[in-house]
Structures are given as structure tokens and as C-alpha cells.
Amino acid sequence: MTEIPTLSARIRVAVLVAHAVLVVALPLAGGGPGALLALPLLAPAPGLWRAQPYTYAWASMLVVFYVGAFLMEASTHAERRPVALALAFVAAFEFVALLLFVRFRSVEARRLEGF
Fold this sequence. Notes:
- This protein is mostly helical and 115 residues long.
- The chain has four helices and no strands.
- It has one domain (7-113).
- Helix content is 85%, strand content 0%.
- The chain starts with 6 loop residues before the first helix and ends with a helix.
């Protein structure tokens, strides 16, 4: 019998997918400068992969800057607006998913402790 994944495990998968999309799409969309912008996103990758809640918490502070940068890019460069808005959506989705993971992981941990 297979075990049903918890809500935090499902959110973790969403975070990993969104993070991978950002890391891959930045160099593709932005060329050389995009590759440089993707480098800071590699810092939290090991902690995200190991599901460390502390890493999820501080990675949300990193990703929020990408949301702002993509929204600024969309508002200042009309020719790059669709790509910038798509990446802003992915970054915003990851930001929310990071916060939800931390929240649900702590709730699940408290339930296991019996509180």
C-alpha cells in the first residue's frame, strides 16, 4: 500500500518545479546577463531539495526580489513584456508556495508531537 503524500510534500514539489523553471528560464530569456541573475537562485537549491524549512523561509526573501525585477522589466520593456510577466508569475507562485510549505510543515510537525 502506498502512503498518501502530505500537503507539505505536495507543496514542496511545486516549489522545486517553480525554482527549476526560474533557474532554467533566466539564462534562456536573458542570455548572458540572465545566467548571472540565475546564480543567486542556486544558493538555496540544496536546502530546498533536502526540505529544510529554514532554507524555504529565507529563499522566500530572495525570490521576492525576482518578482519585483520581472514586474519592472514588464513595465519598462514592451517587447519583453510577455516573458517578463510569465516569469513574474512563476516567481510569485514560488514565493507563495515557499511560505505555504513552511506553514504547513510546522503544522504537521506540531500534530506529530501531539500539540
